[in-house]
Amino acid sequence: MSPKFKLILIILLIAPFNSFAEFQKEVRLIDSGKCEEALAENKLTSLEQEEKFNPKKSYVGKRVIELFRIYSLNRKVNILKNNCKRIDEAFEVAKKSLKLEKELYKVPSNEFEKSLQYNNFQRRKNLADAHSRVGDFYNDAGDYKTGIEYYKKNIEIYESIELYNEGNLLNYNYSILAGLFNRYGDLKKANEYKNKHLNYMGNRYGNKTKKYFDVLFDVYYQYNDQGYYDFALDTLIEIKKSINVSSYYTDDNFGELKLNHSLATAYYYNSKYDESINTHKKNLTYIKNIQQLPNIKEISNKLIRWEVLILNDMALATSLKFDSTGDTKFLDDAEQIYLNILKITKKSNLKELIKDDYITRDNLAGIYTSKSEFDKALPIIKESYDNCIKVKDIRDPSCLTQMITYANVVYIFDLKKGISLLEEFLKLEPKTNRSFIRQRVNARGSLSVMYSDFGDNKRSEELIVEAVNLIDPTDTRFRDAYVLTMNNYYNQIGKSGNHQNAINGYLELINFVDTNFGENSILKLELLNNLGFEYSALKDNKNALKYYLSSLKLAKKFNQKRNLVTSTMNAGDIYFWTGDYKKSNEYYKQALEIIEFSSQKTQIYLYAGLSKTETILENYDQALAYGNIGLKIAKNFHGINHPSNLQLLDSLALVNGYKKNYDKKFQNLTNIYNIIDDYSKGYLTENFNADPNEYFQQIYSFLYVAAERINNNDEHIKFKEYFEKNTINTIENAVFNLTEILRTTKVTVDTNKMLQRNFFEDEVKQSKLRLLEKKIEDYSNIPKYASNQQEKKEIVIKLKKSKGEIEKLKDELNLGKLIKGDSFIYQNIDISDVQNTLKDEQAILYYVNYPNNIYYGVITKDKSKFLYKYHKEEKISSLIKKIRKSINYDNGKISKFDFKSSSELYKELIEPFTNYVKDKKDIIIVPHGSLLSMPFEVLVNKIPEDNLLNNNNWLIKKHNITYYPSISSFHALKKLKKIKFKGYFAGFGDPKLSQNNKKNISNIKKDVSKIFLRGGIADVNKIRQFAELPKTASELKSISKYFNKNDIYLKEDFTEKSIKSSKLEKYSVLSFATHGIVANELSNINEPGLITTPPAKGTIDDDGVLKSSEIKNLKLDAELVILSACNTASGDGSSSAEGLSGLTSSFFYAGARSLLVSHWYVEDESTVELMEKTFDNLNNNLSLSESLRSSKISMIQNNSTSHPIFWAPFILVGGSN
What we know:
The protein is 61% helix and 6% strand. Strands 11-10-12-16-17-18 form a six-stranded mixed β-sheet, sandwiched between helices. It contains 54 helices and 18 strands.
């Protein structure tokens, strides 16, 4: 052999070994559960192998690198699937690996160096494994049909002659395929492969030989470990049928016990508790019979240990019979078994039993917990836990398991201690012990519930997302933990406002429990209650009550008094909201009978409900007594200054009012204000996060007493005196703060986000803050529910990743107390700050419209007034609808304007403040609710003679009118650093569409129906059916002449692409003169947008519609944006949005300081006239609001444009300079 040949051979022999040594670090990272580190190491080793085994190098076999590429891909599959939970990516890599295996299999054997040991056996084995690896992904996703085909191919390859008798390759795969056919519903095929498996084992090892049973037992343990409990049981039954125990267990006196104990365990895991218990009883009889025999001293201790083990397992199976039947007899039986075990242990004096005594005590505490006997459970579990950490170590897995039980019992008595224990658990838990996953999941689920009870929904959500991320819903070992974890997850989803997603999740979860645990499973108890809660959040009282009562029924069946209190109280709440106060009170009293089993937070809510209903039923003394008991609990639980006390304080204020205990009533309301004010500003010491909707009712209670109203006996004056005597605040400022909190429309939120960026002068921080806002919005847009298990995994991974990015940005911005939850507090202002911003000739009119109630006020430079009025019907909304209906076209003719409704609305909204505004030149309107959908300019102080349109009664004739999203935004915009007026204008309009110009406004609706295709991309052919707007070109050109520089984008130049690629921040004024689309006005349009010239073919980036979400991504630094389009002030379809919440919101977010927007479809000729006159008036040194008013008055005086449909649609929103 030549020296050269020897060198080649040596290199080929050592190459695999060296490479294996190099990726040992990667293997360690995989085993420790690392994701990104393991991926990085996998990439590094892959690159190193590409370099080392480059076939162009001398002495390197040309096929070596192909093998190593596949090995590297297979390791990457493992990392992505198990460590990173990135299933889609792992699946693609597995398919790529299979493709490479197939290609490599076609290569003739003689092209592989013998030193690689890549013989025919190894080649086929690798190919077979690659098929089953891909098949596993299909099976995990529930696509058994496809998964079966891959497993059949796997077996087909294994069944080839040289593989069939090699190793133990087919010991499991026949049974796996049998199981897959069973899940797919093909029982005939399932039995066929099950018999194939048994025949294979018999042929391979010889029927009924020791080797045959060894392998069957090995299969049983494999199935059990992997959660295939039904396969495991079938295997044991097969063993039991044919095994000769005495010949198999030749040197073991306890062979019969071992086999039967394994069988009882298999029955238990398959929820066949009767069979399990009966098998355990046979084993106990067997032990008793042996114990009666003489000369058993040598094995007596072993028999005692067996007896204790069997009794423990039997007690567990017995207690679980309660979960399916609700018969507490089974809990009593289990309790007696555990007490018997403790006696046997003590009497035996065996150290190993005494040492493990804590396990029995832990189980006994679980029985007492199930029986709601928490006072019995606490000392037992505490002693058990203390003994465990003495005998072992606090970090020992068994002690950590005890810690979870201990924390759950302690939580009943001391919430904060329960939280502290489980937070300690999270620090100590083993992160890489895969057999400890159930405990890690359960601890997070329990801790999430505790934080939710404490009021920290943010931390609660973090924990439950972690728990869901840990558990694999397809793993049958964790079905119960999966149900409990997803229950908490959907609970958090609901609290974040995604009620419909939560409902979908709960319905699916209940079906899962029905299928896997039975229709009367105890696992449904909380699911039904929480589903009822989600329906109640959507005001679906019928379904809410249905599920509350179902939960209540189940709670009674299982004697779960803690759940029974909650479900009964919740049913009482529904009866209260539907007006059946007597029945509500009855349910509250039923809950009161077992109140000692509930959490302190539940007790506070229950006493609030009792107090409220007793007040309405005129039992004032009893109402006051209930309220005071609740208050005492609240003070002991978390102090008076906590948001979960708000309902109770509200109830006390109500009863104290009826009792004429005015100082007490005022004290209750003052406490309500202090809590809400501190929370809204991020001042609470405890981390509490709640949806503002949870405390809106209490805000209205405060405002009701603080407002001047008819026949209130000057209560507002008395309250003002009390409030200002007992706080450092003024009642005017309190009213200002609370009405601002109530403003949660999208335009308010997005305006605040624009303002908050200006809090930072640093452009880098401004950019980061904008990114933070986008990340928060992205997080809220992640779907929170999926019916497919694979999608569920991906959702949780996205949620966790998104939350991590949000928290990282918060840390980088170092916002501290400026961040509360995900809201930015950019400033704390009071009413005096606002008054200092106002000029003498200005007045603010602000409104909070709430179905039948209206709260409204006025603020001037030196005065303020706040009123309340109640209407039996929704009068305000009704009048607005009538006015809007009269500003329309009816069969091609302009409708007759409704002066009667206009004057009535004037009397409701303006007349009460006549003395405050009559001499004011400027009125700033801050509307709310349905008032957002109407321009106040169309109000008249009295009906004109002969209903003449050209009259002097319009509100616009007397005042300049400007609108702001909130009072604080008016102050903030005025305080912003002034934009340098760049004198640069950009106009976008006259898109290239249909050649047929529209004849009247009403035609638009026919033009734009169904313009959106699937996936949110607009149908460009439908867009081209819009009428062209040629006069908008002259409008834009007319405006542009008032600026030193201008850019006009018309026809083919007016595209989404041109807008998105332009540096828009250089413009002081931008105008968009085109069609506007309102969200949900038409089928399939889920957000508002502006029509641009459509491309030849629509794409996600350019489809002819500049949508609201895309506008948010623009970067503006503009003093004014003009939306000379249809409906640009209209709503965006979201539940909290009305009126101004459409495109206006997005342009504020993008950086506009003020907007000129329209309330309805705009007639283009009058628009051109209005715009030109407005900018002409600017030349006369008038402000923008003055110029707009002057233009409108001019149009009113012209008979051809005197109807509000022509002059009233445009309003000015915002403004800083």
